[in-house]
Input
Amino acid sequence: MTDLTKLTAVEIATGIKSGDFSAVAVTKAHLDRISRIDSKINAFLHVDTEGALSQAKLVDEKRDAGKALGDLAGVPVAVKDIFTQKGVPTTAGSKILEGWIPPYDSTVVSRMKQADMVLLGKVNMDEFAMGSSTENSGYGPTRNPWDLDRIPGGSSGGSSAAVAGFMSSLAVGTDTGGSIRQPAAVTGTVGVKPTYGGVSRYGMIALASSLDQAGPFARTVLDAALLHKVMGGHDHHDSTSISAPVPPIVEAAKSLDLKGMKIGVVKELSGEGYQAGVLSLFQDSVAILKDLGAQIVEVSCPSFEYALAAYYLIQPSECSSNLARFDGMRYGMRVAEGNAGVEEVMSATRAAGFGAEVKRRIMIGTYALSSGYYDAYYGSAQKVRTLIAQDYAKAFQKADVLISPTSPVTAFKIGEKTNDPMAMYLNDICTIPVNLAGIGGMSLPIGLDPADSLPVGLQVMSPVMQDDRMYRVGGALEAALLNHWGAPLLDRAQQL
Amino acid sequence: MTNLSFDDALTRFEPTLGLEVHVELNTATKVFCACPTSFGSEPNTNVCPVCLGLPGSLPTLNEKAVESIIRIGLALNCQIAPWSRMARKNYFYPDMPKDFQISQYDEPICFDGYLDVLVPDQDGSTTVRIGIERVHLEEDTGKLTHAGGSTGRIHGADYSLVDYNRAGIPLVEIVTKVIDGTKHAAPLVAKAYVSALRDLVRNLGVSDVRMEEGSLRCDANLSLKPIGSETLGTRTETKNVNSLRSVERAVRSEMVRQAAVLDSGQKVRQETRHFQESDGSTSPGRSKEQAEEYRYFPEPDLLPIAPDAAWVAKLKSELPEAPAAKRERLQAAWGISDFEMISVINSGGIDLVEKTIAAGCDQAAARKWWMGELSRIANELDQELESLSISPKQVAEVESLIQSGTLNDKLARVVIAAVINGEGSPAEIVANQNLAVVSDDTALLAAIDVAITQSPDVVAKIKEGKLQAAGAVIGAVMKATKGQADAAKVRQLLFERLGVSE
Output
């Protein structure tokens, strides 16, 4: 019998439509696997067994009644716990929101429901999406299915682990500085950060409003495109949402044709600090792309040098303001002793409810926005942001897409970098410029580092609202690699 | 500390004013969400994830609010910024669901305008040009009610309740430039400005501008400096000044208070002060000596506001007649003096008078009722004229009842009081309460006969030709008929009865 958890989203949707198996059977297979292996991984914070099964039942009824089904009807998806879902606990990985049940659906959640997808539950993350390892979750770290002693990346580590561990066919994550692409890279999955404004942020708990973007996790580029299409498009609830339709990403993922395409290799995103295996696999992929008919050019983006510094001013600044509302007054945790006044309750609640990394960034952001420092910190960082966007604009004159490694290193050990915030921040060196410029970025697996047998990711970057370009490159490279490997990379992961 | 009188204070110091007025717009929905803005709903019923600041929610800007503020800016002769941004003002307070207020910082939508206001003086009036620094858009906060404590303030309260119905109502803040050189007229200038601004905003139809409901709120900044000094003194900001009369009183009492502080060699503390409606004084509030730290930064959840120049021009061309122009037009039409016009303007009843005249009333009578009896009642009830529950049409009706002889002046006042008391329309009240002037000669003659019998001495004097003595008898008849008789008619009948002629 087919193991339904091993199928791609396309195969699941096709099988349900043609009556090969039911949506309920697919959902049960995934729920079974979650209950069997997630105690080892800790990807799920909340499994919505009842909600998932009743949605699957509805899909089967719809199919039996001959009604039209969405492209991803009956396909299970894991939702990063940063998206509100009506009636389902939502914590953003923080103790301060423990027990909060949102009264409304985020746009991403409501669109997936409308598309007849089955929402399995909420998955783990670094607290309020601050981190690159999911170790900053208030609910314990998530483990990498490739090696349980290692991190699954972050902040969307629950999403990457759920997909890599075959507990869900698809997952949604959010990416503020690399939080989709880096977890995808270190778990051998595909992760996409769409153009800023391509997917609605309504109902997505904000870390840094001008950088946050929701996107898909999948085991294939085409699956990612299908989920991206469901999630994306204009939403009047989000002023920063782009009113143009989603670019033709599904067609692009299927195209497999790179002839005449100009691909730029970013000079600054390599060299010192990059693991040898990461660099050599990246060079192998460059060669494959060339073989596929693409023209490879080198581009230089000199301002990227300042990206990390600018990011760690803008992101904490916006975060310090966005996280102010968690004050114990209206929802979530409230620490109030005796006759405590309002300020004491707010302070005590925030002291008890937030973790160390969250407090660190709130303090940095509060400082950076203070009068007298604003121009030097926040103001300068915004200027760097403009310079980075200009670097990209110049580079995209020379190339249709840009490529780089996604992360300088493969999955590191749990606990290895928790006491060194700078080492942790450096994980996002390749991904952060994309967020600062608001362009699209994708990570797809390109092999296992021979030194540690762990997955390595390649990042494809495309200009604003030209997301189809990265899907075209991703789809073609994936097909070539699959042909070379003979089987999907994830088949080489340990059996759980 | 010495106490200086207002006039004494002005021999030594001159005041500098700055006024910040908040106007709640009357858009149907809130500024960043689709919740209704209706006043008086059950607490926390006009709310949604956005105005409650729930995690994940995002604001979207109400286009109507932008249109309204641009119209206010244009009416105040302001520049309209072709590109401006909303900003976050960060501070923790439980009436603010997000613990930041979406406001504007260094990029207001409207800036650099003016408003000419008429200020009364001995010679009639002077026009004073008040510079407008900026007009910006922001969201209102929720409303806190402090229970327990004696003062109704947060200090000493047992607990506090928050109503978020008001959170997210669009507010327009209008800030004046420094107002200098007003001297003794400062309190009147402040009042005249707020009054003129209220008329202007009401005239645009973008707000109810009801001070008693808080849809127009004024904070008055005031400092004193020694006469001739170039340097501004330390200012205080008096909050909660919620009627036109209070604006004048607050500025006056703060001038007297600061003068006494300075006169005794002390320093004025930079602080907010609360206006006390009961005695017109101000009491100290939060110190503002430390620079306020709001960590303003551009609101990343909203796009910049970039109104199309053609649209702004269209809004400008469609502005209604300005109150100043209207004043001139009405003053000419009514043919009254500057002084008389000022009293109409200051009463806040210019529209009421105009509407009463439009309903058929003579202009002098319309002014007389609104400036006289109705202003007296409004004062007594501590209400604005326009909130009295009598319409211009009803006032015109009362006046027409006088003209037709159904009512005299005294009865008319009774009818007006009854209308305000909700007892019905003027005609209904006259009919139901039998208030019409008694013109039935038989009834009057009977009352006159009684009065004649009761005052033989007076009657004798009248017969002797001392007609001025008739007052006592007429008074007795009026008393007997409960004021419903026409005094002139009584006099005529009495003399006929006694066979004397005037």
Remarks:
- Residues 11 and 227 of chain B are 8 Å apart (CA to CA).
